Structures are given as C-alpha cells and as structure tokens.
Amino acid sequence: MISNGVCRTTFHEHQKKVASKPIKGPLLSAAIFLSVSGAFSTRPHYDCSTQTQYYLSGGIYLLAGTEGINYTCVSGSGTCTYYTNDGITFLPCQPGVYCTSNCDPPGSRRH
User: Fold this and answer.
1) Which of 24, 22, 26, 46 has its CA nearest to residue 34?
2) Spatial separation of the C-alpha atoms in residues 109 and 26, rounded to whole Å
3) Least crowded by CB within 10 Å, which of 54, 79, 82, 102?
4) Does residue 49 contact residue 93 with C-beta atoms inside 8 Å?
C-alpha cells in the first residue's frame, strides 16, 4: 500500500513474507544437493581393465600378464587382479580368484 509516496505493507502482506522465509532455505539446499548428487551419479565409471593388471602373491604385486592367455579370473571370493596409477597404491580391479592353469573346475564360471 502506498500513501504519501511511502510504501507500507499491510499486516497480512508482512505475514506472507515472513512465512515464506523458513521454507526458502531448505528448498534451496535440497535443490543444490540433488543437482550435485545427480552430477556424480551420472559420471562415467572408470574402467580399470584397460590398465596393466597385477596379482597379489605373498604380499607382493606381480604382473598378471594378458587375461585369457596368461591367466583367467574364476569365481570366488576376493580380488583377482589389481591396478595402480602411481606404482605405490594398488587398487582392486577384477573380482574372483587369479588362476593360471586348470582354471575350469566343474561348477566354476569365468568373470
């Protein structure tokens, strides 16, 4: 309401402004959180199988060779092969058990 060039709000208009303020913060926070979460969830996953593969033997990481020629990963618990980006930290890549010969016992499946 404008009177004599001065803007005055009625009590009812003031109540609407005050009531909407507590809702704006959580809604804005939720919108930001959802947009950031969506960006991370649609990011392509890293394919470690294109990296040089290693297997763990006696606490030492050794070159695995070429999958299907030098080794295969058979089903089982644990990690079959690992990869590294820096030569220091080795990260799990393929699940299963590292196998170089007689790798197809009855009931096993390859990954």
Assistant:
1) 26
2) 50
3) 102
4) yes
| Residue 29: both structure tokens together | 């926070």
Q: Residue 47 to residues 36, 51, 55, 94: CA-CA distances in angstroms? A: 23, 8, 17, 10
pLDDT digits (tens, 9 = 90+) for 73-86: 999 889 999 999 99
The residues spanned by each domain of the chain are 2-41, 48-99
pTM for the complete prediction? 0.54
CB 48 within 8 A of CB 71: no
In this predicted structure, what is the pLDDT of residue 40? Answer: 59
Query: 96 pairs with which residues across the strands?
Result: none
* SS3 state of residue 54: strand
Maximum distance among all Cα pairs of the chain, rounded to whole angstroms:
96
CB count within 10 Å of CB 70 equals: 11
Q: Which two tokens stand for residue 108?
A: 């096993």
Q: Where are the alpha helices (DSSP H) in the chain?
A: 11-41
